[in-house]
Design brief:
18 strands; signal; mainly beta; single chain; seven-stranded antiparallel beta sheet
Length: about 240
């Protein structure tokens, strides 16, 4: 009996040691370790176009194009179809002229119209089909260091600093865990009506799990009028918004 008891205790100790070593060996409770610049290649759904763009399209048609250049420019273009044969495109682009920081994506456009600058820390957009994209940064005029895409159980993580895809694949538990540990920052959603699509800020989350809810309308598009963009936000840093 004593031998069986000691065997069980030894087995338990080995299992605990193994689990501890696994966590220390590059995962966070089963989550991939990010920020290492270790490439995983291009996973399913994420691909390159023209040798320049990373591109991803959700199962319901929302598309993302990411143009990250070595000269410091970063342009993120996100497009979906709120009305039949009519597209809505949000684009983040532009350098930080005063500090020279790279890959800032400072300005925000709706169908080509500039409506504001990126605010606060990280920036997130959640589209009507559930596709979510988060830009990671330390501040409004700081470099974007990473971009994460969440599409149901699919997740992709791009390290912008070293231009590397560090994770990609379908695993609902991993996608949920990565999303929960990453603060969304300033977060925008889209309200769809019979006649309009309204882009608005819903909340800010600078600490994971601590959301400050406040609706702020940013811009809108009219059904049947693809060239008409209503600027609903008065950015104090831009005289013409």
């Amino acid at each position: 009996m004593m031998g069986v008891r000691y065997f069980r205790m030894a087995l338990l100790a080995c299992l605990l040691l193994s689990a501890s070593c696994k966590k220390d060996g590059g995962t966070n409770y089963g989550l991939p370790q990010l920020g290492t610049c270790q490439a995983v290649g291009l996973p399913n759904g994420l691909h390159e176009e023209d040798g320049r763009y990373y591109a991803y399209t959700s199962s319901k048609g929302t598309s993302i194009k990411l143009d990250r250049r070595d000269d410091g420019r970063l342009t993120l273009t996100m497009t979906f179809m709120p009305f039949p044969d009519q597209y809505a495109t949000v684009q983040l682009w532009g350098d930080e002229p005063t500090t020279g920081a790279k890959h800032v994506a400072l300005f925000e456009n709706l169908n080509g119209k500039l409506y504001k600058q990126r605010k606060g820390k990280s920036r997130t957009f959640i589209f009507p089909d559930g596709l979510k994209i988060t830009l990671v940064a330390d501040g409004p005029r700081a470099s974007v260091t990473a971009i994460s895409i969440y599409d149901g159980g699919m997740a992709h993580h791009l390290n912008i600093t070293c231009n590397t895809v560090e994770y990609g694949g379908f695993n609902p538990a991993v996608a949920k865990g990565l999303d929960e540990q990453q603060p969304d920052g300033e977060t925008s959603l889209f309200e769809l009506t019979d006649a309009q699509v309204i882009l608005y800020n819903a909340y800010t989350e600078d600490v994971p799990g601590k959301k400050i809810n406040q609706r702020v309308d940013l811009g809108s598009l009219e059904k049947g009028k693809p060239t008409l963009v209503n600027d609903l936000y008065d950015d104090p840093e831009l005289d013409f918004t």
